[in-house]
Amino acid sequence: MADHWVENHKRDSWRKQAKASGYRARSAFKLKQIQERFNLVREGDFVLDVGCHPGGWAQVAVELVGDDGKVVGVDLQPCAPVEGAILLTGDITDPLTQERILEELDGETLNVIVSDISPHITGKWDMDQSVAMTLVADVFDFALPLLKKGGGFTTKLFQGIGVEELIAAVRPHFSSVRRFSPDASRNSSSEVYLVCKHHTPWKAPKVSVRERYETAVNKLVGGEEIEADPEPVASSFRVRRKKSDDGLEEH
Ligand SMILES: C[S@@+](CC[C@H](N)C(=O)[O-])C[C@H]1O[C@@H](n2cnc3c(N)ncnc32)[C@H](O)[C@@H]1O
User: Fold this and answer.
1) Can you spell out the DSSP letters for 32-65?
2) Which residue from 130, 151, 172, 230 has the least number of CB within 10 angstroms?
3) Is the shortest distance between the CB of 117 and ligand 1 below 6 Å?
4) Exactly one of 30, 32, 70, 156 is catalytic; which is it?
């Protein structure tokens, strides 16, 4: 009960701060806290914001990169304009959307990729968590070739089966890969951020992140054989999304 009260109190406090500071979503503070801790984004950087709706992270990214930087965001849902950012609508895994992102890059490479992507939630937690992790692997596979040597990458992960395997698949691409739970994360038991720094493209394995991740998970859950009647596996994955009374998006 006491923990529940503390969680609600914290959530209200971040929501009030978001409203007072003009951010569209409480999630803006998650990126701010990642930045405070890891100094991921610098002035003048070129940033790709994956899963940018409603625009909280894009607002923070624009502040961080300043007038000489550039921010391109992409989301399935159309996003109201954020001054200083180019926000595209589309599925990051769709080749047409990827083509549009490449057009915006116009041959340049990225300094930082920030991804807060969360797929549509069905309520079947194990399936949702598995879909979310595969999507994160796909984001890495699309975006890593666009990232400069030495560049940074942060992404949301959902706790559960496959987290360690995904981290292991990503590790060879960076010299530092850390987990971080910002205070502003409402449900810290299911949500954690991976913060990767110092991209090392020369060490990149030939096989994609997704393939290495899926191979490792298959091994973990007992090979590729399909059980006739598999037992459900417990997971702590929980995501709820609603609009609060004050109009700020709950992210
Ligand atoms: C938690 S929200 C992002 C909040 C955002 N960082 C902010 O601060 O405003 C996650 C977003 O991921 C988006 N998303 C999910 N799957 C996607 C996909 N395949 N391609 C692009 N965006 C996707 C959802 O539409 C959703 O808006």
Assistant:
1) HHHHHHH----TT-EEEEES-TT-HHHHHHHHHH
2) 230
3) yes
4) 156
**Mind listing the pLDDT tens digit for each residue in 56-91?**
999 999 999 999 999 999 999 999 999 999 999 999
CATH number of the domain to which 122 belongs: 3.40.50.150
pTM score, whole prediction: 0.86
pLDDT of residue 219: 92
HSE (side-chain half, CA atoms, 13 Å) at 168: 11
Distance 120 CA to ligand 1 centre (A): 9
How many domains does the structure of the chain reveal?
A: 1
64, part of any domain:
yes
pLDDT digits (tens, 9 = 90+) for 174-224: 999 999 999 888 655 678 999 999 999 999 999 999 999 999 999 988 865
Domain assignment of residue 76, yes or no: yes
Pocket test for ligand 1, best of 19, 98, 113, 117 (most atoms within 8 A of CB): 117
